[in-house]
Design brief:
- Helix 1 runs antiparallel to helix 2 and helix 1 packs parallel to helix 3.
- The chain is mostly helical.
- The longest helix has 18 residues.
- It is built from 6 helices and no strands.
- It has one domain.
Length: 132
């Protein structure tokens, strides 16, 4: 898989990082792939959709202690989220907000997206209130 990381599309890269976070405790060897994914994710973060970005941000928060190199790619995700927050669903927003809490001390730049996420949450709640 390491040799194929360059050919992976943004969704596959996102899925690999997410799976690494999910499996880190039961199959720690999956962490070996994280450093190989980072340069590819840096180059493809702009092509990620809202779900890919929220999954990556969440996975980064889960991996920060066991694969700290993942923090190198967090700024690339953060740069994309304000422009894509309007397209995020409630789950994406929730995942990002959880990641903010976990990352704020080691990657304080994540707080830059707090306003975009809050604005999206407020708009979503207003829309639901007006529908009912």
């Amino acid at each position: 898989m390491l040799s194929k990381a360059g050919a992976m599309n943004p969704q596959y890269l996102s899925n690999c990082l997410w799976a690494s976070a999910q499996l880190k405790d039961v199959a720690p060897d999956v962490l070996k792939v994280v450093p190989a994914l980072i340069p590819k994710m840096l180059s493809k973060a702009g092509a990620m959709n809202p779900q890919d970005l929220s999954n990556c941000l969440w996975a980064s928060a889960q991996l920060k202690d066991v694969a700290p190199d993942v923090l190198k790619v967090v700024p690339a995700f953060i740069a994309q989220i304000p422009g894509k927050a309007g397209s995020m669903n409630s789950f994406d927003i929730s995942q990002c907000r959880c990641a903010l809490e976990d990352l704020k001390d080691v990657a304080p730049e994540v707080l830059k997206i707090a306003d975009a996420l809050a604005t999206k949450t407020i708009k979503a709640n207003r829309t639901r209130s007006n529908v009912g």
